[in-house]
Amino acid sequence: MIDLEIQDGSDDPARTADYHLLYQRELERSAALRSELEIAQNQSHAFARELSHLFQHSKKQRRELASTNSQLVRYASDLRTTITELRGANQELQEAYRDTIFRLVLASEYKDKDTGNHISRMSRYCTLLARRMGLSQQEVDNISYAAPMHDVGKIGIPDSIILKNGMLSDNEFIIVKSHTTIGSVILENARGAVLQTAQVIALSHHEHWDGGGYPQGSRHATIPLPARIVALTDTFDALTSERPYKTPYPIDLSCEIIREERGKHFDPEIVDLFLTSIDDFVSIKREIDKREPVYTSTTVVLSERDRKCPVG
């Protein structure tokens, strides 16, 4: 048996010092690791608290968002209901407005048995022309509602003149012409756009493109466009309708009279649009009058009044 002697060097002072140094280093490294671990743990706890706070805050926000969304849904429903009610009220107001206009015109022309149809025809004729001229929908509506009030001033003209069968004397014609200024006074200072348009039409619908009309002798574009439109449509309606002093003229003769006044009584552009749209005008007249208008006739005789002044 061999006896081995282990020499560990423990009696060597230098080796013992190295062990102590290594041990101190390990203690320091261990202390540093514990410190880092403690810091990491503290950070982890802080992060956990922050995440918990964010989660709770997010959860609260989701609840608030859900509540807000629910409120918005209710508000939207209430708003839809309110808009529907306002539209209904506005519709009623518009109907009452139109009814008031209709009755105002009836009051001014109630002795004419054709008044109701005349009002409807004028409104439809002017609407057609205004659209063909490319006016805005608001402008079209204003003219449509205002046009029937063009002769509202006739309420101030004696019946003996309005209903006279024959020629008017010079003095009677002067009185008739005053219906433009009377109508303007009746409608002046109106707040609504329709009545403001009606006032312009009442005053100027007998002005002539060449300046030969009344009451102001305006000419060309100084005559308001709504009045220029009414001037032509009113003439067409008068020519093709029965009056105390005449029977209705056929469509072809009425168009020929209007064509001859192109650039004199009427705005040339409006005449051209009217003549190219004559079939639509005839359709409106047929629909409202519920009878077929006369297109041509070889036996038409102009009335004495129309021979002197066929377009008013």
What report would you give on this structure?
- There is one protein chain.
- 67% of the residues lie in helices and 0% in strands.
- It has 312 residues and is an all-alpha fold.
- α2 (115-132) runs antiparallel to α3 (137-146).
- The radius of gyration is 47 Å and the shape is rod-shaped.
- The chain is built from twelve helices and no strands.
- The protein has two domains: 49-109; 114-308, Orthogonal Bundle (Hypothetical protein af1432), CATH 1.10.3210.10.
- The model is unreliable at 1-6 (pLDDT under 50).
Indicate the topology.
Elements: H1 13-109, H2 115-132, H3 137-146, H4 159-162, H5 170-177, H6 179-187, H7 193-204, H8 225-239, H9 251-260, H10 268-276, H11 278-289, H12 304-308
Helix pairs in contact: 2-3, 2-8, 2-11, 3-7, 6-7, 7-8
